[in-house]
UniProtKB/TrEMBL annotation:
Family: Belongs to the vitamin-B12 independent methionine synthase family.
UniProt-annotated binding residues for Zn(2+) 1: H654, C656, E678, C739
Residues of the Cobalamin-independent methionine synthase MetE N-terminal domain: 8-320
Cofactor(s) the protein requires to work: Zn(2+)
Residue span(s) of domain Cobalamin-independent methionine synthase MetE C-terminal/archaeal: 439-761
Function comment: Catalyzes the transfer of a methyl group from 5-methyltetrahydrofolate to homocysteine resulting in methionine formation.
Protein's UniProt name: 5-methyltetrahydropteroyltriglutamate--homocysteine methyltransferase
Keyword terms of this UniProt record: Amino-acid biosynthesis, Metal-binding, Methionine biosynthesis, Methyltransferase, Repeat, Transferase, Zinc
GO molecular function, one term: zinc ion binding
Metabolic or biological pathway, per its Swiss-Prot or TrEMBL entry: Amino-acid biosynthesis; L-methionine biosynthesis via de novo pathway; L-methionine from L-homocysteine (MetE route): step 1/1
Native organism: Rhodomicrobium udaipurense
Enzyme active site: H707
Any Pfam family hit: Meth_synt_2
């Protein structure tokens, strides 16, 4: 072949191999470092990312894929979509204003006291983005040159990059307005001049290509959205005919949007061929000859080593037909969703490690593919043999397959997913058992994991604290937290979860079939990073996981103490999931393990058991036609885990930061006695469905936004609860924060929970 095929990266993890960005951000927020030091850390991380990609063989390197908090928030700032509450008028946007939008403000850093913007999940991932907020009088203006500055920064370091922008149509579709009559797409004509200004600046600084992400193209789109896409890219092409646009789609197949995508006057089109594996033939049949196809053949959202030989079998005829100049190889999406480097893992099981590929290794897989396609398979024979051997070993490994788990799953009956009696009968028995006041107060589960807690955990892990010493420390923290909950007046208590590192990891470490990393961090939002467990094999529960801590906690109080578990769907969706069995099978295996834990908690005397399904909504397929299949097995898995208890045992669940209104009937079908959900940032908007849908069970709409350091006033929480009363009966309402309090400080939690209890009492006085 005449030239080497290009290897492209759509974006990389920005947190750093050892979470350097997290450390710097939290030091900056704590006023331990200044803006200069924060920006210097960010510059080092960007330089390291560019160097890492070049060393791995990436030839199309992105810029503007870095963010201090979130790329959607960056776009809002770029175009001046900054609500009045943050005090910005014109000119450059300060970090104070930027972080106020992300985290709320108390009057510091150039912004007045203000709540954070709403936050929700990025498509069907566990990454969170800050929801753009628009108004009918919206004006857009270029308020940040970050994208151009980072392109120039790369140039000065010797890297010619392809800058990345979130597409204007997707940006508008991700946004909301407080005016429900405003369709954000009507703002397109006002928005496009700002984008054109940025694109002109790229061109003036020498950019040949720009990557514009329009993941909305994998969604169900109406004609208005398709028209908006055609208008947008025609405007770009007419204004800047020499600037080449790589239109990036990901997280699924184009489907019925394929013709629209191929009609757009762009130079390149990126395809997710992992989640949209079946679309390649249709694209090849219809794509114009001169269109550069970026083929996303390496999974950007999971950690399994690729089947390089199978991918080559698929790609060789494509490259032979279109030529290396019109094909690029890439991950399916940004590598933001994967850990940085597998080589940092020193303690992983050697077999499991051989089956994995993190960000750096995925770039290496792409480089291997590119060389094989450009120079022939013989040029990379050792790499191909190693990949094939690892795949064969994984398929045959007894670490993956457990006959007893398969047999138990085959014996499951439909009756196992049903409570013994309908909710009204259960509710009457539970009210008599607990005798709770109207608007009972509780929390979601975790309390602050202070520096002392983290220090003790680290010391125990290193052997500096014995098991007995660590246990004594945890008991002291638990008892202190129980005493405080009693003093502040909470009706239903939790033990605080000080023994838990993470709500999924804790359980995965106690279940068979999971592996864990030391440095496999991925960003969830801002400085919040998680290490997803790696689900590699059949799942079972060797022994009880939480019963001992519940028994101790309940022994410290006469008030009801919830048993706290993570549900099967959330464990599945927040893990790197095996790709050799259907997700539904893996989920049911986890459900049976959780069912065993529920039974043991009830046997020990737990009167209330909360089974969190925080990730239920985010697993929903992006296309509505696929929803029911997912919901059927997801809801059945939850019910399989929760339904083996007596009527008097109250089952709670929790779901956070998702849009629930369109699946409210499925949530009702979970048949949990009490659900708690996020509603504070959306100002109870998530309860709109209850105006028409008569939700039968009890619900705690979160009134305290725990993702912000703000302490909401009693009046603010009372207002939210009154909004909830417009949609739900008083007897249905619980009062709680919208998520766990692990990441907050006690200095924030104590007054906020006290205010929450006061708000509940105010409502009782009004009733």
């Amino acid at each position: 072949m005449s030239s080497s095929i290009k290897i492209a990266s759509l974006g990389t993890p920005r947190i750093g191999p050892r979470r350097e960005l997290k450390t710097a951000l939290e030091a900056y927020w704590a006023h331990k470092i200044g803006e200069k030091e924060l920006r210097e850390t960010a510059a080092r991380l960007r330089a390291d990312n560019w160097a890492r990609q070049k060393a791995a063989g990436v030839t199309v390197i992105p810029s503007n894929d870095f963010s201090f908090y979130d790329q959607v928030l960056d776009t809002s700032v770029m175009v001046g979509a900054i609500p009045e509450v943050y005090g910005w008028k014109t000119g450059g946007v300060t970090l104070g204003t930027y972080f106020a939008m992300a985290r709320g403000a108390h009057g510091e850093g150039g912004a007045g006291s203000a709540p954070a913007q709403e936050m929700t999940k990025w498509f069907d991932t566990n990454y969170h983005y800050m929801v753009p907020e628009f108004s009918a009088e919206q004006r857009f203006t270029l308020a940040s040159l970050k994208a151009v500055d980072e392109y120039r920064e790369a140039q000065h370091l010797g890297y010619e990059t392809r800058p990345v922008l979130l597409g204007p149509v997707t940006f508008l579709k991700l946004g909301k307005s407080k005016d429900p009559s405003l369709d954000p797409l009507t703002l397109l004509d006002a928005l496009l001049p700002v984008y054109l200004d940025v694109l002109r600046r790229f061109a003036a600084n020498g950019a040949e290509w720009v990557q514009i992400d329009e993941p909305c193209l994998v969604l169900d789109l109406d004609d208005a959205t398709r028209d908006a896409l055609r208008k947008t890219y025609r405007r770009f092409a007419d204004a800047l005919p020499s600037l080449k646009i790589m239109l990036a789609t990901y997280f699924g197949a184009l489907g019925d949007n394929l013709d629209t995508a191929l009609s757009l006057p762009v130079a390149g089109l990126h395809l997710d061929l992992v989640r949209g594996s079946g679309q390649l033939d249709d694209v090849l049949a219809k794509a114009p000859r001169g269109l550069v196809l970026s083929l996303g053949v390496i999974d950007g959202r999971n950690v399994w080593r690729a089947d390089i030989t199978a991918i080559l079998d698929r790609l060789e005829p494509v490259v032979a037909k279109r030529g290396t100049d019109h094909v690029q190889l890439a991950p399916s999406c940004s590598l933001l969703h994967t850990p940085v480097d597998l080589e940092l893992e020193r303690d992983l099981d050697v077999d499991v490690k051989s089956w994995l590929a993190f960000g750096v290794q995925k770039m290496g897989e792409l480089s291997t593919l590119g060389r094989a396609l450009s120079e022939g398979r013989a040029s990379v024979a050792p790499a191909l043999e190693a990949a094939s051997a690892a795949l064969a070993a994984r398929r045959a490994s007894p670490k993956v397959h457990n006959a007893a788990v398969s047999q138990r799953l085959a014996a499951v009956t439909p009756e196992m997913a049903l409570r013994r009696s309908p909710y009204p009968e259960r509710a009457a028995l539970q009210r008599r058992r607990f005798g709770l006041p109207l608007f009972p107060t509780t929390t979601i589960g975790s309390f602050p994991q202070t520096a002392e807690v983290r220090k003790a955990r680290a010391a125990h892990a290193k052997g500096a604290l014995t098991d007995a010493e660590y246990d004594a420390f945890l008991r002291e923290e638990t008892t202190r937290t129980i005493r405080w909950q009693e003093e502040v007046g909470l009706d239903v208590l939790v033990h605080g979860e000080f023994e838990r590192n993470d709500m999924v990891q804790y359980f995965g470490e106690k279940l068979s079939g999971f592996a864990f990393t030391k440095n496999g961090w991925v960003q969830s939002y801002g400085s919040r990073c998680v290490r997803p467990p790696i689900l590699y094999g059949d799942v079972s529960r060797p022994e009880p996981m939480t019963v001992g801590w519940w028994l101790y906690a309940q022994s410290q109080t006469d008030r009801p103490m919830k048993g706290m578990l993570t549900g099967p769907v959330t464990i599945l969706n927040w893990s790197f999931v095996r790709d050799d069995v259907p997700r539904s099978v893996a989920c049911r295996q986890i459900a049976l393990a959780i069912r065993d834990e529920v039974a043991d908690l009830e046997k020990a005397g737990a009167p209330m058991i909360q089974i969190d399904e925080a990730a239920l909504r985010e697993g929903l397929p992006l296309r509505r036609a696929d929803w029911q299949t997912y919901l059927d097995w997801a809801i059945t898995s939850f019910r399989l885990a929760s339904s083996g208890v007596a009527n008097e045992t109250q089952i709670h669940t929790h779901m956070c930061y998702s849009e629930f209104n369109d699946i409210i009937d499925a949530i009702a079908a979970m048949d949990a006695d009490v659900i708690s959900i996020e509603t504070s940032r959306s100002k109870m908007e998530l309860l709109d469905a209850f105006k028409s849908f008569k939700y039968p069970n009890e619900i705690g709409p979160g009134v305290y936004d725990i993702h912000s350091p703000r302490v909401p006033a009693v009046e603010e929480m009372t207002t939210l609860l009154r909004l909830a009363r417009e949609r739900l009966a008083d007897g249905q309402l619980w009062v709680n924060p919208d998520c766990g309090l692990k990441t907050r400080r006690w200095e924030e939690v104590r007054p906020a929970i006290a205010n929450m209890v006061a708000a509940a009492k105010a409502l009782r006085a009004d009733s």
